[in-house]
Amino acid sequence: MGRHFLRDDDLTPSEQREVLELALELRRDRYKVQPFVGPKAVAILFDKHSTRTRVSFSTGVAELGGYPLVIDAQNSHMGRGESVADTARVLERQVSAIVWRTYGQDRIDEMAAHSSVPVVNALTDQFHPCQILADLAAIADERGGVGALAGLDLAYVGDGANNMAHSYLLGGATAGMHVRIGTPDSYLPDPAVVARAEEIAESTGGSVTVTSDCDAAVTGADIVATDTWVSMGDEAQKAERMEVFLPYQVNDRTLELAAPGAHVLHCLPAYRGHEITASVIDGDQSLVWLEAEYRLHAQKALLSWLVDR
Amino acid sequence: MGELSSHGEAGLEKGRVETQRYEHALMATYGTPMRALVRGEGSYVWDADGNKYLDLLGGIAVNALGHGHPAWVNALTQQASTLAHVSNFFATEPQIALAERLLDLAHAPSGSRVFFSNSGAEANEAAFKMSRKTGRGTVIALEGGFHGRTMGALAMTHKPAIREQFAPMPAGVVFVPVNDADALRAAVTAAGDDLAAIIAEPILGEAGIRPLDHEYLALIRTLTHRTGALMILDEVQCGVARTGAWFAHQLHGIQPDVMTLAKGLGGGFPIGAVVAFGERAGTLLGKGEHGTTFGGNPMGAATALATLQAIEDEGLLANAKSVGQHLRERLESIPGVIEVRGEGLLLGIGLAAPAAPDVAQAALSAAFIVNPPSPDTVRLVPALNLTTAEADTFLEWFAGYAARHPFVPEGDR
Questions:
Q1: Parallel, antiparallel, or unpaired: how do β-strands B203-204 and B52-55 relate?
Q2: Lowest CB count within 10 Å: A193, A237, B24, B176, which one?
Q3: Model pTM?
Q4: Do A145 and B217 touch (CB under 8 A)?
Q5: Residues of A in contact with B215 (CB under 8 A)
Q6: Is ipTM strictly over 0.95?
């Protein structure tokens, strides 16, 4: 059975390190590994819209020597109700890996349960683990390597109940970081995810803090991350969200509270003036564009690592 | 192997005469030399009396390829007969190629630069001067750390016995205990905006081959980033494939701002290097702000290039790892050995008693060259192409020695 990557804690701390090291290596030497030469096909499935994920996975598979097979659900039988299990059984016979952006985590878990080839979570409602790999790789590259991640203070502020917050909790704890979530009490992260992150942090020397005090979350932080306040599927509550998250905006004052030279992350798309100000995302301390670039390198590293298992 | 070949009166006399001449002509800084050596081949050396020794010290981690490696000899002789020295007013191909190779092996980002020196101490002097160029004055160094005996390097070296008589030292250096995160944080806080650099050996050599914890190295990286200070790693002893990785920090997945190299780099030819990572560190020293006459001359650069090439061609990273692991496993099972520290072929045998000088002396009599960096540590830093069979001859002798001379802790005597 192949290894899958469905949530951030599917990689152990040392495995995560291996993947991140390879990601940094691939930024320097883009064609260093070629596991899909043949070319072998990788199915990249989308139930939801995507820009960065579509481009980075397609380009990445091609650079790994393979053939990216991009499938939109509405244009395939999956969109007409073919079961996840049946889809997995068909795909595993023809492709070398399956990448999927979908809704509930249960769907990707089911795909993995029926697939002998690696299944990669390219975003679910609960987790966005490929994004966190890219974030960690970008930080590592900027700060002197993967080993430098351990001990960093990473603050995520905004919607604490979303997939990015959950993935920062698990992925950050795996990297040995001190993960702080600053979010309103009505948007707390899933307690099960927090508990799991605490368990991981125990073994890696990291820690987990969840607070509604945004200033406390960002004070002294080495990394400040945020995400759009209105994620895909949340559009109905837009007005309410705008109001409740306003105190969690990442702006110039946030940077004054954070550690000197702190870096800022945003997984994009960004709404300037809402969750982040233009002065910050377009400023010197923004790592956003390197972060976006690292989607490519990190996902290539992950795919290559998975098919080698 | 195991016992010296018998030698007659005349041979014994020859060695004795050499040491007497030495003592009358050279300063006593190194005391009386243990033997006068005349020849080397691979991992073996011969003394003036014709005795053969297995060299597990490698000129203190210098002879990465052993003695007389053909590719190294060829590179040196070819270069000597082509262009031996021109000063740093002129560029030479070997020097440029070596700098490029080091940047490549270190995965250094764009803007990174190399400075060549003659030795490890001078590389650390350059790094020290770079820290001053940040406009800040405080350098944090580690207790037990050793960075050399020139004045700047000595200022960053902890051992009071080798410092005190040369006071006053260049100012601004504070020492913190090794692997103590709280003490490091406190020192960084105390230094405030004046913190220029933190310097550390990833594996402390003279302190007895003591590795820094992964978490501690990561903390140095985090704190230097947070404060804008330089992270200087002294890889003079642990760099250049010694640990089974090209550089010891690569075992931890971190990258410093400055790395110093020497010892193994030239495979026996004196050369040191400072690798500055990234544009900021790479441009700290500008025109006229530092220099050396001999540093990176064509012969040194050519032999270093040949050394790096041979390490790669002959798979010596893997050999250092596997022979190192073999030594470690066997040594750990010898009674009285409480731990084996280090990585690859940079090993410290930790003894239960401060008997390391006795072990080194007995080993020499039995035709093995090792040395004690601290009273309870025997250091093994042989050629990176040492074979398992060669290692086994030492293991066999050492196991026998330990059986005859149990290492009893001082308190239990």
A1: unpaired
A2: B24
A3: 0.84
A4: no
A5: 150-151, 176, 205
A6: no
